[in-house]
Amino acid sequence: MLISNIFKIKGKETEYLKKSAINIDIDLGDFKRNRTPRIPQANESQVVRHFTKLSQLNFGLDTGFYPLGSCTMKYNPKLNENIGNIKEFTDLHPYQDTEETQGALQLMYELGEMLKDISGMKGISLIPAAGAHGESTGLKLIDEYHKANGGFRTKILIPDTAHGTNPASSTMTGHEVISIKSNAEGIVKFEDIEPLIDKNTAAFMVTNPNTLGIFETDMHRIAEKLHSVGALLYCDGANTNAWMGKINMGELGVDVLQYNLHKTFSTPHGGGGPGSGPITVSEKLLDFLPEAVISKDGDKYHFIKPKQSIGRIKAYYGNFLIMLRAFAYLLNSGQKGLNKVSDIAVLNANYIRAKLSRYYHLPYKTDSMHEVIFTDKYQKVYGISTMDIAKRLLDYGFHAPTIYFPLVVNGALMIEPTETESLSEIDKFCEIMIKIAEESKNSPELLKNAPSGTIKRINEAKAARDLILREQF
Amino acid sequence: MAYIPHTNDDIKKILSKLDINSTDELFKTLPKVKTLFPHNSLQKEPIAELEIERYFEKLASKNKIYKSENIFLGAGSYYHYIPKAIDAIVSRQEFYTAYTPYQAEVSQGTLRAIFEFQTAISEILDFPVVNASMYDGATATAEAILMSFRKNRGKKKTVLLASTIHKEYLEVIENYTKPYGINLINIPHNNGVIQFSKVKELYNDDVFSFVSQYPNFYGIIEEETEQMIDFLKDKTVNTISVTIDGTALALLKTPAKLGFDISVMEIQSFGNPLAYGGPHAGVIATTKDFLRLIPGRIVGQTEDTEKNTAFVLTLSTREQHIRREKATSNICTNQSLIALRSIIYLSLMGQDGLKTVAENSYKNSHYLYNLLINEGFEILDNETKKNKFYNEFLLKIKNSNNINKKLKEKGFLAGYPMKEGLLLATTEMNTKTSIENFVKELKSIIK
After folding, report:
1. For residues B385 and A79, is the Cβ–Cβ distance under 8 A?
2. Which of A86, A202, A343, A384 has the most crowded Cβ, counting Cβ within 10 A?
3. Average pLDDT in the A424-433 region?
4. Which of A360, A416, A307 shows the shortest CA–CA distance to A68?
5. Which residues of chain A lie closer than 8 angstroms to B68, CB-CB?
6. Quick check: helix, strand or coil at residue B42?
7. How far apart are CA B210 and CA B149, in angstroms?
8. What pTM does this model have?
9. What pLDDT digit, counting tens, does each position of A55-110 carry?
10. Residue in chain B lying closest to A218 (CA)
C-alpha cells in the first residue's frame, strides 16, 4: 500500500497573495540564499486531498475507544474547538498592552483559580507547555526553596512505577534519582521510604493514584516525614481524573502538583501535543513561581514577577489556546460535574476489571481507581505477548491500551476507559478482549499476524537500524 | 458532566456487577478530607453550552485586535497570512484528537505528516536531522545548548550568547542552563550588532557553544557572522543559530551554509496564529553528529511485514520513556499539531508562495524604512555601513511608549516600545497604503 507523498505531487501552486508592487530590490549581499528549499509545489486541491488521505490512516478519538492507561483519552468537546477559533483570542499578540488583553488575562486568572481550587493549593503557574515541563519547573521551585532554606538538596525520591518524565525531569534539573520500590500491593509504604528521607532529600516525586491505577495511601504520612526534615512533596497530577471532588491534595501535604490539561481537562491530544502542564503550589513556593504570574487588582488583571521568581521557563504565557479549551470544560463541569467525572471514571475502570479478571492476569489485588492493569501471563503459555494482544485489538477497531508500562509489571496492559465511554462501548470492548483471550489459546496466529489491516505490523527495529529521517530527493 | 453518556440504568447495571450500592464505596480507601474546593472559585453547578459561549463572547469583547494591515509589531511573533485550508485539515478529528503515534499501524497519518514536516524543515534549514517539535523557539534554543553540552561530555562549561538574541529566549536559556552550572557570557552589541572582535576577545577554551539570532532581535542580519563561525569552528565550539520568523529563510542564506552546527527555529510564522503567545513550537535541526543526542521525537521511515513503506517514531532510546534519568531530555508531549499546521502551510504556500511571503515582508519593511528616512527619522544602524535587515528594524525615537499609545488610538499596533525606540516589523499583511498611513500618523504625532 502506498502512502501519499506530498513531495511527489506536482501541481500549479494556489496563489494566496499577490506579489508586492513596491519597487524595491531585494539586497541581501552575501546573505542571499542560493538554492530554493524543495518544499512542495502543489495546488490547494491536491494538498487537501493528500492530507485528507493521510488523516484516513489515523485512528482518532472520535473514531473509537482509546483505552490508554495514564493518558485519560476522554471525549474532546466541540464547543471548545469553536471558541478556540474566536479571532479576539487567536489574533492577540503576546506583546499587546495588557489594557487590550483583559479578556485573555481574566480567562487565565479564572482558570488558575479553578485549578487551585481542585487541588486545594495556594498558587499557580499556567506557563508549562506539557506535564514534563511542569515537572521540571516544579523541581526548580523546590530547588529555589531549598537554596533559600539551608542549601541545595540533591536527592529526588521516585517510585519505580513513575512515568519516565519524572526521573528525566529530575536529572535535567541537576538531581540524583533514588528509586523507591513499590510493594506487593503496588504502593510505596511509609516504612520502606522513611529510612531514605534525610536532609539530602529535596523531594519525593509521586504520582497519585500511581501508574498502576492504585492510590498511594501512605502519601499523607510520607508528607509529614518529608516536611519534618525540610523536604517537599511533588505530586504528578497525570491521574487527576480519579480523585476530583474526593480529596484535597493541599491538605494531604502536597507542595507542587502539575496537571495535564490534555488529559484530565479534555483538551485534544493533537497527535502528540500541544498540551499544557500548569503547576499548583503550596504557600512555601509562591515567591518562586516562574515569570509571569497573573494578578487581579479590583477588576483589572496584570502580570507580576514574584520576588524570588525562578525566571522564565518558556517565552510568553503558556499554551493559551489550550488553556481556553480547559476553561470551557471547567465551566461545563463545575464541582458537581468533576465529582461525577471521577465517579464514573473509577466506576468504568472497575467494571472492566470485574469483567476481565477471569481472562487476564491481575498483578495486584489492591483496588484499582480510574485505570486497571493486567499482564499477559495467562496468554504467555500459548506464546502470545502483550504486544500481540495490543495489535489484535487494532483489528477490532479499538486503539490498544498502554503496553509495557509501568516497567515494574512484566508485560503490562494498562486500561483507562475514562468517564466518556458508554456502557455499551465498554461491554463491546470487554467482549472483544475476552474473544482475544480465547483466540490466544485456539488461534494464536490471528494475533501473531495482527494487525491485518492495510498496514501490517511495522518493523521498528529496521527504522532505527537503517535510518531514514526525511524524504530523499 | 455534559459528556458522560451513562444513564441511571447504566450506572445501576455497573454497580450491580460490582456488587456495591454506590460509587462512594469505590473511594473508601481514600483519606478523609476537611474541605473540598476550598477557595470556591470553581462554581458548583455545570454551566450549559449556550451560557459558556456567551461568557466567552464577553471575554472576547475585552480583547482588542487590530486590522491585519495595521500590525507593525513583531518582536518574536509575526502575523503572517494563514491559508484557510490549514484549519479545514487540522480540524479533522483524525488529526487533532489522535494520541501520540506510539501504535504506528493506526497512526500513519500523523507519522507521515511529521516525516514530511522534518523533510521540509530540513530543506529550509539545510540540515539532515530534524526533530518533530519542541515547546517553542526559546526552549528549543535552551535544549540545543544542553545538547551541545552533552556532546562535550560536560568538560567545557561556558556559552557565548549574543545580546542581540530575543530577551525572553536569553531568560529561558539562563533558566535551563542554571542546574548544570553553565557560565553564560553575554556578547555586548554595538548599535544592534555583535562584533567579531568582541567574540574573539571573550572567547576562552572553556567555551563549548556560541549562540546568535538570525536575523537578530533588532531585525538586523549580523554582518560578521561567518567570521565568527570560522574562528570558533576549529576550537570545537558548537555554533547555534536561532531564527524566529522562519519566512526569512526563503530569502536568506541557510545557517548550514554559514557554517553553523545547529539551527533552531520557532515555527509560529508557518501557518500558526499569534494566539497570545501559545501554542507555538520550536524545532532543532542539525548534523548527523548529534543524532544520538538530539532531544524530542523523530519519525523514521521503515516497512511493515509485507514490505509496504511505513513510518514510526524512532531512536527512542534517547527518550524519557526508555532511558528515563539518562534521557536526552524530559520532553514527552511536544507541539505535534503545530508542526502539522506548519507542513500544511509550507505545502499550500509552496516554493513560489513562500518566496512571495518573504519578498513582500522584505519590501514592506524596506518601504517603511525609506519613508521614515525621508521624513528625517533615524533607524538603529552602523555608523559606517548600512545593516542588512529582513522585516524588522528599530526606529530611534524618544518616549516610544507614549508614541506607541498614540498610534494605537489611531488603530495601529505600532511596534514594540523599547528604551532605544520602537521595534517595527512588517509582513506581507501590510499594504503600501497602510504603511504610508502609519508614517503619516507618526509624523503628525511627533510634530
Report:
1. no
2. A202
3. 98
4. A416
5. 91
6. coil
7. 11
8. 0.97
9. 999 999 999 999 999 999 999 999 999 999 999 999 999 999 999 999 999 999 99
10. B31
